[in-house]
Amino acid sequence: MKKIRAKKGCFARISRRMTDNRAKAAVFALFCLAACAQPVSHVPEGATVYDLRTGAQLTERKAAKADGFYGTLQRNGQAIAFVRYNPHAFQTTVVAAEGEQADSTSALCLRYDAFAGINGSFFNMSELTAVTLVKDDGFIVGRNVSIDPTRANGAVVLNPESVDFAACDTTDTFDLEWEVMTSGPMLFDGEQTFTYGEERDDYASFFGKRHPRSMMGKDADGGVWMVVVDGRFPGEAEGMSIEELTELAHSLGLTEALNLDGGGSSTLWVLPAGVLNHPCDNRRFDHVGQRIVPNAIVVR
Questions:
Q1: For residue 294, is the peptide bond before it cis, meaning its omega torsion is within 30 degrees of 0?
Q2: What is the Cα gyration radius of the chain?
Q3: Cα–Cα distances in Å, from 39 out to 62, 202, 219, 236, 251?
Q4: Rounded to whole angstroms, what are the CA distances from 230 to 246, 284, 285?
Q5: pLDDT at 143
Q6: pLDDT given for residue 11 in this prediction
Q7: Distance between CA atoms of 238 and 84, rounded to whole angstroms?
Q8: What pLDDT is recorded for position 22?
Q9: pLDDT for res 4
Q10: pLDDT at 24
Q11: Which residues of the chain register pLDDT less than 70?
């Protein structure tokens, strides 16, 4: 029987080829891991976004790496303005400016050298004082008074290293927290989605009726959102019910979300663009009709 001999160097070539294939496989695996590790942009579909620090327009890839971005979009006949930012790259602060110190949301933002800001919680419109718990710089400015507890069943809780949204009730005083603003209703808190039924006396006028809405929340990657939905402009901006606002929050990827004061108070401002939404207090679809408010939440 004739023996078959491998040519000289054959095994060496096979060994090198196997080594090369393993190396290529390892490189491909690293490429896949790198692709999977790319940061998510969180840019809503159909939106054009701008850098929160510079105002420069961003691609989705750049938005994924930016400390914050803002933009607007039209969705199902709704005009929506939003800001998303990294809470570790900016400072989030409660601004309490009651009585004679009250002003428009944009003016309060400028007063505190902010990059962005949103109107705060419910207040007495004649006295310009809070009717929910407001804790500013460690001091309690407003307390829960004369408001349905389910309208103040959530809180924005601000500490030097964190921004959180938590369900609460009107007896909570948040003694250990640095800054707090209670508002509501709470939409969801990471564990449950809150529902508000038609049996409520105020369902038709508040929960179930479309209004301008302001909302804050947080997504799974820790990004904080400020969102305003315009309303009271038939054909241009209808507003949203609380249920519709909850659906919007879910669609943006939020895992925690809290409704703030809405209606004519709803205002979202950024530097340098100015007021992003169309405040309705002047009954014109423009950026001018801001309401005087005694509190806000700003990003510095």
A1: no
A2: 25
A3: 10, 42, 13, 34, 18
A4: 15, 12, 9
A5: 86
A6: 45
A7: 23
A8: 65
A9: 47
A10: 57
A11: 1-38, 146
Q: How far is 77 from 224, CA to CA, in rounded Å?
A: 25
Q: How far is CA 170 from CA 131, 147, 242, 284, in A?
A: 11, 9, 20, 36
Give CA–CA dist 115/270, Å, rounded.
6
Rounded distance, CA 101 to CA 38, Å? 45
Distance CA 141, CA 271 (A): 27
Q: What is the pLDDT of residue 5?
A: 53
Q: Parallel, antiparallel, or unpaired: how do β-strands 78-85 and 224-229 relate?
A: antiparallel
Q: Scanning the structure block, which residue is given the tokens 């369900």? A: 167
> What confidence score (pLDDT) does residue 39 get?
77
Give the dihedral of Cα atoms 54, 58, 64, 67; nearest 10 deg. Answer: 10
Neighbours of 241 (CB within 10 A): 18
pLDDT for 15:
52
Q: Are the beta carbons of 168 and 258 closer than 8 angstroms?
A: no
Are the C-beta atoms of 108 and 97 separated by less than 8 Å? yes
CA–CA gap between residue 95 and residue 117 (Å, rounded): 10
Residues 6+ apart with CB under 8 A from 275: 105, 106, 267, 268, 269, 287, 288, 290
Helix/strand/coil for 73: strand
Q: Which pLDDT does position 101 carry in this prediction?
A: 98
Q: From CA 226, how far away is CA 259, in angstroms rounded?
A: 10
Tally Cβ neighbours within 10 Å of residue 274: 10
pLDDT at position 171 is 81
